[in-house]
Amino acid sequence: MKRKICVMVLFLILLSYVIVNAVPFTTMGFMKVPDAYVLPKNIIKISTSAYIYNDQNDEYAKTLPDEMQFTPAFNLNFGVMDIAEIGFVYNLLPTIDDTVKWPNDKITKDIYYANIKLNFLKETGKYPSISIGVENLFADKNIDDIYKDKFDSNDDQTYNHDIDDYKANSFYLAISKSLLLRGIPFADYMEMYWTLGIGLNRFVGQSGVGKTMNGIFGSMESKLSKSISLVLEDDGYNVNFGIKYEIEKFSGMLGIYRINELHFNPHPRVAFGIQYNFDLLSNKKYSDRRPTFSQIDKEAPETTVIINRPLTEESGGIDTENPLEDNLIKIREKRYKAEAIIKEIEDTLK
User: Fold this and answer.
1) Domain segments of the chain: what residues?
2) What are the C-alpha distances in Å from 20 to residues 4, 23, 64, 68, 336?
3) pTM to 2 decimals?
4) What's the mean pLDDT in 314-333?
């Protein structure tokens, strides 16, 4: 297991040195869509990410970033009192090179900004998790002015959304909820997490469908196994798709960024990210940031789906709404095991 972790870390770190542009996986969610969950108290998340983009022989290459620039992002997030999350991002802005029209066209500018999210409603069996937040806090407000003569914001095909990703003070409201699907053709059940939200600035598209949505964004995560998840999201501008692989405290992310731009730009933007969760200062784990389904709920279709609520320090680690919940779960587990053994014996006797 340790060998697999080391290989994954080295592989993704090497990839981060050949990736380019405004970087996904720096938001408080998946690729570019924040969710309503926050890090547990005292947990620290460290991540680096970027993506590969090749504009060679591209019809619109004159208005898109240079080929194979080095612009990774580094992200540091903290969980505060189980109700808030604070993140800091360092991102190298891509160099824009349009030698045909502008003689002094080399512009580089590193960006520092913060992301903050406050959760004011925890998810329960009936209600979703609700949070408000802001992205790109303290980002350079004049960053768009640097490129105002180089891009036409009314034309998606010549407008560089990378620059828009850095729009300062992008406030948002996000709602997230877990879901357990049964009866699907290829599995007995599937855990899913959906998010729906609305935001300002970077979440608002400038033309086309993005402009019509007017800041509405959303995502859907499907867990194929304990370690592997598929994520589909719309960030207000574009559709993104990715896969997440988790090993202990590490997570690796791989995705295709801006899928709906492929109709005029045949070169996909392939995004990469790696994350480490430091939990030595906390009595919780990274997985506690959102509810999970118990094994009984997954394997017992005749029972009502119950989401395990996070245990609180105030309750002494016991659900105050049902103090006997832990004992009941253990009894039910033993009962299902006994029923399985009895069924095996009956089948053998037959």
Assistant:
1) 2-291, 295-349
2) 26, 7, 12, 6, 52
3) 0.72
4) 58
